[in-house]
């Protein structure tokens, strides 16, 4: 489930929504939700995805605080890009790091390099991992890798599952946190056991750490200690840090040097990337220090949501996990996704408060699932504010359910 799966083709506003195709309905709802997010007085998170081109360009006005803007522009990965790579390597405690235009490319390259060194192209990973769900079989179709699924359960894999895997694998890939299971992390002890189990199998360990930045509160450890458990780590610059895009692969200098060769072969040696690199440096400067605060407040928001939904008298509801591991978590409701999505957007349009700002997944009929993200704007919400927003939302949810089923 992702906002980016909803089409952004312009759909005329006239005409009843019932007369539109499914794709047109999704597009119209995406536009309404984006408009509601821009105009809402209160939101739990504001991200660049909801902004305008003018606003995103304006966000670089402060770039002089993180890099000398009188330096020459980057050409094929030097200058500001190299500065960003050094910054990431220092934060994660690795010998080196390489900038990539996408995380999909970064992880394929990393695991391809490890496969070449180990002689084994099999990668053990979770069935809900990003490469299995969101990358159109890129591992096998592009990079000659062979995914081996450890489990499909909506939880992190266990060390015993790693030990019991019925075939050899060259690398263990762990997504931290596991987004599609509810942004779940193992405990620190469980993570160490997973890594040790992989070592027992003579496998390297790679962290899909797109949102690893958010994990320090749950683990109670600094970033470099967490990353130090793995042989290589990928991190994203736009998911947690609100950069324009981009990713980094961090690890041993020899691996990173080889990865840069493959980056060129994969078409990732982009001519100039200074806007993206500058936005990443700003994210590391401004957002990274605040992520622990977002995580702690997400727990306040989640508790208030859970209590208010239960008190509202709905058949049932679920906040998952009950105590969020990061500043993002899931909410489940017993209604069709279209009904809940319309109620959420109406609430924002009519009250100026956007409680649920992301798309609703309706893969299972009669069940709707969304994700809640708490960032700087969410820190202004008290538990009582959350309760009031839930009350407004439930009124419209019942109205929409009655309209559809009445």
TrEMBL record:
Statement: the UniProt record of this protein carries the keyword Lipid biosynthesis: no
Biased composition (Basic and acidic residues): 1-13
Molecular function in Gene Ontology: L-allo-threonine aldolase activity
Stretches for region Disordered: 1-33
Keywords of the record: Pyridoxal phosphate
One of the GO biological process terms: L-threonine catabolic process
Cofactor(s) the protein needs: pyridoxal 5'-phosphate
Pfam families: Beta_elim_lyase
GO cellular component terms, A-Z: cytosol
Domain Aromatic amino acid beta-eliminating lyase/threonine aldolase: start-end pairs: 76-307
Similarity comment: Belongs to the threonine aldolase family.
Name of the molecule in the record: Threonine aldolase
Species in which this protein is naturally found: Streptomyces longwoodensis
């Amino acid at each position: 489930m992702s906002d980016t799966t909803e089409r952004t083709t312009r759909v005329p506003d006239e005409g009843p929504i019932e007369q539109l195709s499914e794709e047109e309905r999704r597009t119209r709802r995406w536009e309404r939700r984006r408009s509601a997010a821009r105009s809402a007085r209160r939101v739990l998170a504001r991200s660049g995805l909801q902004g305008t081109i003018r606003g995103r360009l304006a966000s670089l006005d402060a770039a002089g605080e993180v890099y000398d803007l009188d330096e020459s522009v980057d050409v094929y990965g030097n200058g500001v890009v190299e500065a960003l790579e050094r910054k990431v390597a220092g934060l994660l405690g690795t010998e080196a790091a390489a900038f990539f235009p996408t995380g999909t490319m970064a992880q394929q390259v990393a695991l391809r390099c490890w496969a070449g060194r180990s002689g084994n192209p099999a990668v053990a990973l979770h069935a809900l991992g990003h490469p299995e769900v969101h990358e159109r079989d890129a591992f096998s179709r592009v990079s000659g890798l062979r995914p081996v699924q450890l489990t499909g359960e909506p939880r992190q894999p266990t060390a015993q599952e790693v030990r019991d895997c019925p075939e050899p694998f060259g690398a263990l890939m762990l997504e931290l946190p596991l987004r599609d299971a509810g942004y779940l992390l193992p405990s620190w002890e469980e993570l160490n056991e997973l890594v040790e189990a992989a070592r027992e199998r003579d496998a390297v360990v790679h962290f899909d750490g797109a949102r690893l930045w958010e994990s320090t509160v749950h683990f109670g450890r600094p970033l470099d200690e967490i990353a130090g458990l793995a042989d290589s780590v990928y991190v994203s610059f736009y998911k947690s840090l609100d950069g324009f895009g981009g990713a980094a692969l961090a690890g041993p200098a020899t691996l990173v040097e080889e990865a840069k060769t493959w980056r060129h072969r994969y078409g990732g040696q982009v001519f100039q990337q200074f806007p993206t690199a500058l936005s990443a440096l700003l994210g590391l400067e401004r957002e990274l220090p605040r992520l622990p605060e977002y995580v702690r407040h997400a727990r306040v928001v989640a508790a208030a949501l859970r209590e208010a939904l239960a008190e509202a008298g709905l058949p049932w509801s679920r906040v998952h996990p009950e105590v969020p591991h990061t500043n993002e978590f899931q909410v489940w409701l017993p209604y069709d996704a279209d009904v809940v999505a319309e109620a959420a957007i109406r609430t924002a349009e009519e009250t100026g408060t956007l409680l649920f700002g992301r798309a609703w997944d309706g893969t299972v009929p009669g069940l709707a699932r969304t994700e809640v993200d708490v960032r700087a704007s969410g820190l202004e919400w008290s538990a009582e504010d959350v309760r009031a927003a839930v009350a407004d939302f439930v009124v419209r949810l019942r109205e929409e359910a009655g309209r559809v089923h009445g």
